[in-house]
């Protein structure tokens, strides 16, 4: 039973880490290399949940008021892929718990349960790579901006 609790706590912790990483990828700046492609979020609740208004705690990285409803394409694609991976991870962890509790011989449940460590590694690698791509986009865009990266 302790293994099942640890499994679900790991999935919940990873969901929180994925959300925090997504917030780090959600700041829109006009100098981003990918600035031409963005998704406008009109719903205020979704906007507060998905889009951050600054890159870090510094007020130098605060986005313009007109740009606060724009989700960069990197952030939008991150949220889509991360939700698919997290959904698969939830299903895999539930199948693991079901196979432990019921001692079933179902090949499907066993196959889905064995995917858990691979999905966990996939999500962690995807988080790191997406964050790296966004930071490269931010850094190179700031260097190439004719205003010197000033908002």
Blueprint of the fold:
Elements: H1 2-24, E1 38-40, H2 44-50, E2 70-72, H3 73-102, H4 107-114, H5 116-144
Antiparallel strand pairs: 1-2
Helix pairs in contact: 1-3, 1-5, 3-4, 3-5
Kindly describe this structure.
This protein has 151 residues and is mostly helical. The chain has one domain. It has 5 helices and 2 strands; from the N terminus they run αβαβααα. The chain has a two-stranded antiparallel ribbon with strand order 1-2. Helix 1 packs parallel to helix 5, helix 3 packs across helix 4 and helix 3 runs antiparallel to helix 5. The longest helix is centred in the middle third of the chain and has 30 residues. It is elongated and about 65 Å long. It starts with a helix and ends in a 7-residue tail after the last helix. The model has no long low-confidence stretch (mean pLDDT 84).
β-strand percent reads: under 5%
**Total separate domains:** 1
Distance between the amino and carboxyl termini: 53 Å
The averaged pLDDT comes out at: 84
Sketch the topology as an H/E string, one letter per element. HEHEHHH
Main sheet summary: 2 strands, antiparallel
Give a brief description.
The protein is mainly alpha-helical.
Task: From the structure above, extract its key features.
mainly alpha, 2 strands, elongated, 151 residues, 64% helix
